[in-house]
Design brief:
This protein is an alpha/beta fold. The chain has one domain: TIM Barrel (Alpha-Beta Barrel). It is built from eleven helices and eight strands. An eight-stranded parallel beta barrel has the order 1-2-3-4-5-6-7-8, surrounded by eight helices. α2 links the parallel β1 and β2. The longest helix has 17 residues. The chain is globular, with a radius of gyration of 17 Å. The site of 3-methyl-2-oxobutanoic acid has 11 residues, from β6. Its cofactor is Mg(2+).
Length: 265
């Protein structure tokens, strides 16, 4: 059957404009990518979370560009019609020159967009340079795992009014620099709602509340494969399902119906 999944950034933007929720999940290999797309996933993220869930590291920092390239190629082979976003690994975009060379290498695997973490001035510069040269960029604010040691752990961000205002200011500057998508991780529901409502581009939340334009989860968390505790904002969609494909479908349906994440306020 021919996939009807969106495969351009314009289609994801149209979903936001039409108020349709975007379902996204991480994928690291061809088989999981194919199952996710067959279940109706709108886009896939080759996340550097693979360092933790595939490699067993305690953070994402050890993931290399070559490893990302390997996984991007695999995901692309499994989901040739899908819109695929890939993380630029730790320190691979510390300067605009590095960002250009390393993002080019990722794009040449066949993915469609690169994701950079953070909202500091040096990130804006890289975003501008990349987008001016035709590389679509996704921002990532809130809990940014590559900054885990600076943040003092995997903790919720944007909890005070000042921190929430700073996140919004960074998001608007990233949009001005050229990002076309924003991942917002682990912030209060009110902050997710405000940022999603005030940005023109789609905001994909992970632990950022029901009001974001879409949701992303780490596939190993939502399939019950992650050893130990999963983040409080994640949910094991395998429970009550017979197979991985059904779990992916349950997640897609829950995101589209706005049953996940549950509204708190
Ligand atoms: O690496 C990753 O999987 C991510 C998600 C947590 C959004 O960046």
């Amino acid at each position: 059957m021919k996939s009807t999944a969106p495969h351009t950034i314009l289609q994801l933007q149209q979903m936001k404009n039409d108020g349709k929720k975007i379902a996204c999940v991480t994928a690291y290999d061809a088989s999981f990518a194919a199952q996710a797309v067959a279940a109706g996933m709108d886009c896939l993220l080759v996340g550097d979370s693979l360092g933790m869930v595939v490699q067993g590291q305690d953070s994402t920092l050890a993931v290399t560009l070559d490893e990302m390239i390997y996984h991007c190629r695999a995901v692309r082979r499994g989901a040739p019609q899908s819109f695929i976003i890939a993380d630029m690994p730790f320190m691979s975009y510390a300067t605009a020159e590095q960002a250009m060379a390393n993002a080019s290498a990722l794009m040449q695997t066949g993915i469609h967009m690169v994701k950079l973490e953070g909202g500091a001035a040096w990130v804006f510069d890289s975003v501008t340079q990349l987008t001016q040269r035709g590389i679509p960029v996704c921002g990532h604010l809130g809990l940014t795992p590559q900054f885990v040691h600076q943040l003092g752990g995997y903790r919720q961000q944007g909890k005070t009014e000042q921190a929430a205002n700073q996140l919004y200011a960074q998001a608007t500057e990233l949009v001005q620099a050229g990002i076309r998508l924003l991942v917002l991780e682990c912030v209060p529901e009110t902050v997710g709602k405000y940022i999603a409502q005030h940005l023109s581009i789609p905001v994909i939340g992970i632990g950022a509340g029901y009001a974001c334009d879409g949701q992303v989860l780490v596939s190993y968390d939502m399939l019950g494969l992650t050893p130990g505790k999963i983040p409080g904002f994640a949910k094991n969609f395998m429970l009550g399902q017979a197979c991985i494909s059904d779990a992916f479908k349950a997640y897609v349906q829950a995101v589209k119906a706005q049953d996940f994440p549950v509204k708190n306020g």
